[in-house]
Amino acid sequence: MRLVLLGAPGSGKGTQAARLRDHFGVPHISTGELLRAAVKAGTALGLQAKAVMDAGGLVSDAIVLAILEERLSQGDTSSGYILDGYPRNVAQAHALDVLLGKLGQPVERAIQLDVDTELLVARLAGRALAEHRADDNPESVRKRLQVYEDQTAPVIDYYRHQEKLTSVDGVGAMEEVFERIVEALGSRYA
């Protein structure tokens, strides 16, 4: 299984990716976690990323893709992977396709978790209270959701045109959403 999991902030991508990892026995790969681990480990790419982040910049697609290539070249991805939250725009999706083609591990499916905007705002506000996260206040949440609509939502069309996309209702109990995803993946992955 080579899967890209898509959805707006608060849609449950991380939660469902972890459940899918446990169910299917393939690694859950989050580029944010990879970046943090590379920085902490002091790898060459991690040091490059740290310099950019310390200067207040966004880590370049080239650095993220190189870190992702290192991760996808590890043996545990030979039977598949679940990418969570990447790609974030169409240029990244195209670059990812080139990289995965080179590695012989092309994306097989993309699952979009579909959740209404107002519910996303409510979920993230609840997370802000529970986790004391300043970046989840209603104003910043709406801004992040707008960035998602502008930049990341076109990735959904990218995978739709490749006939790899399935949209899944992301509303309901975690187990219900998980069951919908597994059903959407079909018997090939059961």
- How many distinct beta strands? 5
Tell me, briefly, the overall form. globular
Low-confidence stretches: none
* CATH topology value: Rossmann fold
The average pLDDT is 90
The radius of gyration over CA amounts to: 16 Å
CATH homologous superfamily heading: P-loop containing nucleotide triphosphate hydrolases
Count up the domains: 1
The assigned CATH architecture is: 3-Layer(aba) Sandwich
What share of residues is helical? Answer: 55-70%
* Series of H and E elements: EHEHHHEHEHHEH
Work out the helix count: 8
Give a structural overview.
The protein is built from 8 helices and 5 strands, in the order βαβαααβαβααβα. The protein has about 190 residues and is α/β, with parallel strands linked by helices. The protein has one domain: P-loop containing nucleotide triphosphate hydrolases (Rossmann fold, 3-Layer(aba) Sandwich), CATH 3.40.50. It has a 5-stranded parallel sheet, with helices on both faces. Helix 1 (about 15-25) packs across helix 8, helix 2 (about 30-40) packs across helix 4 (about 60-70) and helix 6 (about 115-130) packs across helix 7 (about 140-160). The longest helix has 24 residues, at about 140-160.
